[in-house]
């Protein structure tokens, strides 16, 4: 393979029970750093004032923010070819040059045209795609039996990162947008360099009845929820009360300790090692591209890789017979066809090209677009929405959305994991439920009542988070982990697409038109007040979510037999490659 360094990095798999948990704790810091795109509302007004942009121009910068964050096809392709530390290093470079350029523009150190600023913001927020791909893909492969829980945790910390940055913005940075941009340019690279060695592929244990691993995940989830609640309370206190420097530093120190809490698991495993079991647990090598293996290494790895696509059971005759019965039942319901056809069937490892020609891939893309594409419109314009209804303190709104987005991701991952194991309920069921709630939420936003802005933001944040957390494991379950990084990043493209159509073209145009109506004679009015600034935008978003709900019903009906096959034994297992779709 070209670039042997990268391939060699993938071939070296860290053994032991502690390294995956160390990697998960390191990924927490990576994901907090990767949340830079969520703090655009904190410095967007400074860009608007310093450079004299109107709302439509600012909204197009919001599109650049979303394009950079979500267009991660390149890191998705390289996830199978480069080691995680190198992907993190590239992401750090993007943050340094991108946000550094924006800082130079806002401080007026260097005068630059609008298009340069647009590209710089794209590059800066694209660091999120590189960092998120390295952390998520590595940990999904290190914990293959807990995909929903891992996805909820990993992406949940991205959501809570908005509150982390807000806490730093209010306390340590003295509410200075220029200081925040400098933190993004320098802090993200420093954080990634410090932890990138620990984000690495490990040999996971495939013990399905591991109660210790379950308790570790529960501890991590509880500590993350405590962190999120603490950040919301600390942000509100810091915004409503005048805190002295000592208390500010104390609050910041507590936040750092809570961010370090996932390290308690590997520390506990070191101080109190568990007794080895009599039976040797089955393990696999993470399913990186076999292109990185060659010669004798590939031959020695082949039986392990085949094990990932057979079963996660003990391999007894009873297990094989049960699998055959499940396959026959699934065939009768249309989930699989035991007749040999070209290409894999749903549940196997697909290449990206094979997934692109599947109807289920595009149905998931459309459903996700309807939910997240509309939700990101409200997020990008949250500051202007708050000002329009009289909530001038938009920092609290951003913190509230970030916390609820975080809660939604944690709940989306853990709740869907529970029901898919106990009831074989397809995960997109929760996408359908949240889109129904989003219809009501957008109608609440459309009223323009100050008393409802916080309720609407809460509901939208939770629903937005659930959509995200459910999409990730659904992709891996239907199309495997082989090209998961590329498929996951392709799905994320709905964010910039939705931001362009619903935020830039629709919301920006309506906002500026209403602002011009309210300020006759003013050449370029910058502010709009009242419910009419966004009312039509919210009506359109509600209609789109209605369509997404209907499509999701059809999608769930199609994939229900697949989930019955994958989770018939109460836990995830790969179907066998011998029976082709």
Layout of helices and strands, plus pairs?
Layout: H1 4-11, H2 19-33, H3 40-51, H4 55-70, H5 73-78, H6 84-106, H7 114-142, H8 147-170, H9 177-195, H10 211-240, H11 245-259, H12 264-271, H13 295-308, H14 317-332, H15 352-356, H16 359-380, H17 382-388, H18 394-422, H19 428-447, H20 453-479, H21 484-491, H22 494-518, H23 535-566
Quick description:
With 581 residues, the chain is mainly alpha-helical.
Keywords:
single chain; 581 residues; mainly alpha; 23 helices; globular; disordered N terminus; disordered C terminus
What does this structure look like?
There is one protein chain. The chain is mainly alpha-helical and 581 residues long. It is 71% helix and 0% strand. It contains 23 helices and no strands. It has helices at residues 4-11, 19-33, 40-51, 55-70, 73-78, 84-106, 114-142, 147-170, 177-195, 211-240, 245-259, 264-271, 295-308, 317-332, 352-356, 359-380, 382-388, 394-422, 428-447, 453-479, 484-491, 494-518, 535-566. The relative contact order is 0.14. Mean pLDDT is 80; it is low at 1-9, 279-321 and 575-581.
Q: CA-to-CA gap between the ends?
A: 30 Å
Question: What is the number of helical segments per DSSP (H or I, 4+ residues)?
Answer: 23
Report the C-alpha radius of gyration, rounded. 24 Å
Mean pLDDT: 80
- Count of individual beta strands: 0
Counting helices, strands and paired strands, the structural category is mainly alpha
Largest sheet report: none
Show unreliable segments: 1-9, 279-321, 575-581
The SSE string, one letter per element, is: HHHHHHHHHHHHHHHHHHHHHHH
Shape: globular
Residues in helix, %: over 70%
What percent of residues are in strands? under 5%
């Amino acid at each position: 393979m070209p670039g042997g360094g990268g391939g060699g990095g993938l071939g070296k798999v860290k053994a032991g029970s502690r390294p995956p948990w160390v990697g998960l704790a390191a990924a927490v810091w990576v994901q907090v750093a990767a949340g830079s795109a969520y703090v655009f509302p904190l410095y967007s007004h400074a860009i608007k004032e310093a450079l004299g942009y109107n709302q439509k121009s600012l909204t197009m910068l919001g599109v650049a923010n979303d394009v950079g964050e979500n267009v991660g096809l390149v890191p998705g392709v390289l996830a199978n070819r480069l080691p995680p530390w190198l992907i993190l290093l590239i992401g750090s470079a993007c943050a340094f040059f991108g946000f550094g350029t924006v800082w130079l523009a806002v401080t007026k150190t260097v005068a630059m045209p609008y298009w340069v600023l647009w590209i710089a913001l794209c590059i800066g927020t694209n660091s999120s795609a590189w960092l998120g791909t390295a952390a998520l893909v590595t940990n999904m492969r290190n914990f293959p039996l807990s995909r929903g829980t891992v996805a909820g945790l990993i992406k949940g910390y991205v959501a809570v990162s908005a509150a982390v940055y807000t806490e730093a913005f209010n306390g340590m940075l003295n509410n200075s947008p220029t200081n925040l941009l400098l933190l993004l340019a320098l802090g993200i690279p420093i954080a990634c360099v410090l932890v990138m060695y620990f984000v690495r592929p490990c040999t996971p244990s495939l013990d399905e009845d591991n109660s210790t691993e379950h308790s570790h995940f529960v501890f991590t989830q509880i500590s993350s929820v405590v962190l999120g609640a603490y950040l919301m309370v600390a942000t509100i206190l810091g915004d409503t009360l005048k805190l002295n420097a000592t208390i500010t530093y104390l609050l910041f120190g507590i936040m750092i300790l809570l961010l370090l809490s996932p390290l308690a698991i590997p520390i506990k495993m070191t101080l109190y090692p568990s007794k080895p079991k009599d039976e040797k647990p089955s393990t696999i090598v993470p399913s990186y591209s076999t292109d990185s293996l060659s010669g004798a290494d590939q031959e020695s790895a082949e039986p392990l890789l085949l094990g990932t696509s057979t079963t996660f059971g003990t391999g007894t005759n009873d297990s094989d017979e049960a699998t055959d019965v499940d396959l026959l039942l699934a065939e009768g319901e249309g989930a699989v066809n035991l007749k040999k056809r070209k290409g894999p069937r749903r549940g196997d490892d697909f290449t990206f090209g094979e997934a692109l020609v599947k109807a289920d891939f595009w149905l998931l893309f459309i459903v996700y677009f309807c939910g997240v594409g509309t939700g990101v419109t409200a997020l990008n314009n949250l500051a202007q929405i708050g000002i329009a209804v009289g909530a001038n303190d938009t920092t609290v709104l951003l913190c509230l959305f970030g916390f609820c987005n975080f809660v939604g991701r944690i709940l989306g991952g853990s709740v869907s994991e529970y029901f898919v194991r106990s009831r074989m309920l397809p995960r997109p069921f929760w996408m359908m439920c949240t889109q129904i709630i989003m219809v009501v939420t957008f109608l609440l936003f459309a009223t323009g009542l100050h008393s409802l802005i916080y309720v609407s933001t809460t509901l939208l944040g939770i629903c937005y988070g659930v959509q995200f957390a459910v999409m990730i494991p659904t992709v891996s379950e239907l199309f495997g982990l082989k090209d998961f990084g590329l498929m996951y990043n392709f799905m994320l493209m709905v964010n910039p697409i939705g931001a362009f159509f619903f935020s830039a073209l629709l919301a920006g145009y309506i906002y500026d038109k209403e602002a011009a109506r309210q300020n006759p004679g003013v050449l370029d009015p910058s502010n709009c007040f009242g419910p009419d600034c966004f009312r039509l935008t919210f009506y359109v978003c509600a209609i789109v979510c209605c369509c997404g709900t209907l499509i999701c019903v059809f999608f769930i009906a199609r994939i229900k037999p697949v989930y019955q096959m994958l989770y018939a034994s109460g836990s995830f297992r790969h179907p066998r490659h011998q029976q082709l779709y």
